[in-house]
Write a structure and sequence with these properties.
2 helices, alpha+beta, 14% strand, 51% helix, single chain
Length: 65
Amino acid sequence: MGEKKKILQLDKYEFGVIFHSLTEKRNQLLKDNIPTDDVDSVLLKVIALLEEPIGRKGYKYREAR
């Protein structure tokens, strides 16, 4: 059976925190010569969530498929 998907509503700041945390984790794994496959797959999903900016105040996010 498929796993249940979770949907998060994030503002620009929260999105940045998640993105930078994953990027820092990936860099640390690379530094320690540890495979980054799992972090890479999550980081790519997070990047795919960001669509075009809407208006001046926020960003439009979509669910990764």
